[in-house]
Amino acid sequence: MYIMKTETLIGQGKSYLTVRRALIVISVLLLALLGFAVAALSLGSEHVAAGQLFPALISKLIGTASPLSREQDVIIFSLRLPRIAMAIGVGAALAVAGAGFQALLRNPLADPYVLGVSGGAALGSITAIIFASGLSYSRPLFGFAGAAIATLIVYRLGKREDDPAHLVLAGVVMSTFLSSVIVLMTAMTDNVKLRNITLWLLGDLSSGAVEGLIFVLIAVAVGAAILVTQSRALNLMMIGERDAFAMGVETARVRWVVHLTASLLTGAAVSAGGAIGYVGLVTPHLARLAAGSDNRLVIPASAIGGALMVLIADTIARTALAPRELPTGAITALIGAPVFVYLLLKSRK
User: Fold this and answer.
1) 18: which of 41, 88, 144, 289 lies 20 to 30 Å off by Cα?
2) How many CA atoms lie within 13 A of 36 on its CB side?
3) 89-348 has which CATH code?
4) Mean pLDDT in residue range 62-87
């Protein structure tokens, strides 16, 4: 079985993807995600014993009497379970988008926030909150539209063959501009909408609507599948676009596919959960350290790792000062920033 060898984005180590290694990494991540999901269902201002959760789920599926009280049943199935699903979807979407951008641009600092894609999604979502809050699916649709438009502008401004640094620079400029526009828009809203927008910008999974959850889960499933199909091409493009083109990769098509797919993922995640940072930046690094640099494994590993990171952060956010809640985005920053600094220091050794 031929396996491509590529240099990792952090350090100079080399890695080979094998079926055994892929199964071990994915299995460990899935078990960790399942374990934290069970813990998240159990923890909160109303504690529910973990041993009651599985019988309660079975009774819910077959329609028999639940071992939980009515209040506990509402808390578990109407509040915590949708929120956990939202955290998993948002984390996976941001991490997969970050993994795609980093592989495409060969830059470990590339992620939806640095490139301005998240800013476009945030601006679109805020526009929906202010002007179209009564329309179903307005936030996810406006969020995707904003992300796609920001991606197109950044791509046109920073396009320079085989020099992704220009694209990152254009993204930084776009991100700064969009942040200013968002501040101006929020300054002109009434107090009620201003509070909602402020909490949402800090990263908030507590008020996610059903349509936002459905949109983000569909986006993750479709987006991750698309990027996995492009993983071999991305492996070659990590060497350099000219070399990849010489090897038969349709580099222009791959660039557009990755950019649009990452826009879909970012738009869905930001519209559903707000501005949750560091997930798309840190998680792909950790995935490469654990799984090597082959994108056939990095992309699915990043999806599970991102879901795990946001789930842990959101569980801390709603339990640390229960019944008060902290912004999920603040917790991901507290987790992600030290980890990223550690990775940077380690890469210099």
Assistant:
1) 88
2) 22
3) 1.10.3470.10
4) 84
